[in-house]
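Figure 2 data, in text form.
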Amino acid sequence: MQEKIKTGRVIVVEGKYDAAKLAGIVDAAILTTDGFGIYTDRRRQRLFKTLAQKQGLVLLLDSDAAGFRIRTYLTNLVGAQYVVQAYVPAVHGKESRKPQPGREGLLGVEGIDDATIRSMLQTALAGENEALPAKRAGRPITYTDLYEWGISGTADSAARRETLLNALGLPPRLSKKALVEVLNTLYTFEELNDQVGRYLPPSG
C-alpha cells in the first residue's frame, strides 16, 4: 500500500464522494464546496479565506465546465497567491453509483483512478516545502472532545453543534471529520473549550 501524500494545505473538492476518494490518498484536511453551494454559503466562503491565508488551498475539482467555474470563483475569492491548482484529466465515463453520466459525460474526481489523482497532486505540489505547519501550543481537539462537549453523538448534539458553529461563524454543514480538522486549524483544545463554555450550557 502506497504512503499517503502529505501536505499542510487544505484540499478542496466539490462533494462528499470526492472527499471520500481523497481520504484514501492524502494525509491532509479535505473540505467540500457542496458544488455550487459555495456561491451562497457566506460562512463557508469566510472559512475558505481564513484557511487559505493560514495554510493555503489545493483545488482539485472536476474537469467539466462546472468544475472550472467553481475553480475560478474560489481562486478569485481567496486570492491566487494562496492556491495551488491540481487538474484531473477529462475522462469520459460514468461513476458506478450514478444511473447516467453527467451533462458532459466526464468522470468527476470520485471516478478518476487513484494513480492519476496521486500523480496530479504530486505535480501540483512539486517544488513546495511540504512540511506540515508547526503544531499550535496546547493539545489537539479530538472526536472524544466533540462528544464530551455534547456536539456529537448525543441526543441534542445537532442543536448544540449548530449553536456553537453559529457563534463561531463556521458553516453548519461540516462532516465530523472535517469539523475536527477545521477546529484544529483554528483553535487549540484550551481555546475552544473556553468558547464552548461561553456559548453552550453544560452537556448532559
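Caption note: Residues 5-125 form a domain with the Dna Topoisomerase Vi A Subunit; Chain: A, domain 2 fold (CATH 3.40.1360.10).
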